[in-house]
Amino acid sequence: VQLQASGGGLVQAGGSLRLSCAASGRSFSGYVISWFRRAPGKEREFVGGINRSGGTYYADSVKGRFTISGDNAKNTVYLQMNSPTPEDTAVYYCAAKFAGSNRVVVTPDNYRYWGQGTQVTVSS
To answer: Going along 7-117, which residue ranges are E strands?
Structure first.
């Protein structure tokens, strides 16, 4: 499966932004799809993910502000970012792993397929 992330840009703190992760080659319904981010000078960080049943799991840092959803017809997963803060500034990546146990896992090494990153910059 190939992944294409898009939707990044500049957003004001407290605003909203929606990132998209379009899958091609195969239906994403057989995969767990997650979002990661890497801020300057920091390690890659798990943001949240969605399993094949539509169940979601989020990092504490974004819980209640970010929402992940999937559109099977468009083969696309979305990351809705509400009330972002400057601390959310990073390059955001989507990644996929075979569903297997259908659990969203937070370790990047478990994900085989990665999209290119999309830059999100939150201004104060």
So the answer is: 9-12, 16-24, 31-38, 45-50, 56-58, 66-71, 76-82, 90-98, 113-114
64 contact partners, CB below 8 Å, separation of at least 6: none
Q: Which residues, 6+ apart, have CB-to-CB distance to 22 below 8 Å?
A: 3, 4, 6, 74, 75, 76
Q: What pLDDT shows up at residue 82? A: 98
Q: How many CB atoms lie within 10 A of CB 70?
A: 20
CA gap 99, 114 in Å, rounded? 15
List, for residues 55-93, the tens digit of each pLDDT value.
999 999 999 999 999 999 999 999 999 999 999 999 999
